[in-house]
Amino acid sequence: MLANNMPSSSSSEASANISSMLMxxxxxxxxxxDPANKLEASSSSISRQEIVVELERRGINASLFxxxxxxxxGDMLRAITRIIIANGPGKKRQISSHSGGRKNLALSSLDKKxxxxxLSSKGKVSSITLSKETGAPLSTVxxxxxxxxxxxxxxxxxxxxxxxxxxxAMVFVxxxxxxxxxxxxxxxxxxxxxxxxxxxxxxxxxDIAAEVIFYENEDLLNIIERVRAITGVRNLFWVEVIDxxxxxxxxxxxxxxKL
Length: 259
Fold this sequence. Notes:
Helices cover 42% and strands 12% of the residues. The protein contains 10 helices and 4 strands, in the order H-H-H-H-H-H-H-E-H-E-E-H-E-H. The longest helix has 17 residues, at 70-86. The protein folds into 3 domains: 11-86, no CATH class; 109-154, Arc Repressor Mutant, subunit A (Orthogonal Bundle); 161-241, 2-Layer Sandwich (Alpha-Beta Plaits), CATH 3.30.70.920. Strands 2-3-1-4 form a 4-stranded antiparallel β-sheet. A hairpin with an 8-residue loop joins strand 2 (194-199) and strand 3. The protein starts with 10 loop residues before the first helix and ends with a helix. InterPro entries: WH-like_DNA-bd_sf (IPR036388). This is Transcriptional regulator. It comes from Candidatus Nitrososphaera evergladensis SR1.
């Protein structure tokens, strides 16, 4: 655990101070203007403790970052503030132009029945059982199952790293100069730290989302520093995945109903 060497002060007073710095002539966070830019403009008058208080007010355990500089803490606060603003009331989520759509889907009622059978059984149902349940010939079920599994289903067989004593974090990376793909490939080459890497959009400062594993806090900080050193990386922030609360399989049923 990293040491927390930051002095204590009145939480409410510090929060009030930094909140006033994030206002522009009386405009609050949900009005026009980027609070992250306002923070950057007034960074010289913001103390380390005030940044820490504001991070903790946003649910971040600042005691884990005692070794970070005030600039690094400020970067973290700016990134989190942008997320809050981007997802605040009245904001519309941007949709990726690469997200596809339903216009090219051609799923018959039989396809949907097979998909429901595969999803409800987590892929363990046999084609013979599906053939009996749908009333379709076995050869037809086998052919369609192969196509559906190839195009519409994801399968995985991965260890539960938390059960093995490891921890998981999501690292969100902002790149520059059109280097997102190169940065992503570099991260994927880290065989001992990175589980998966995805292109991302919807938040102006995020191009890459990487899922990483680590054992101690120091390991994560080392990963963060390695990511920062990659050519083309402009900024980053991260969150640790504490626990999976559950999975909602009814969401997939909803998707099938809409097809």
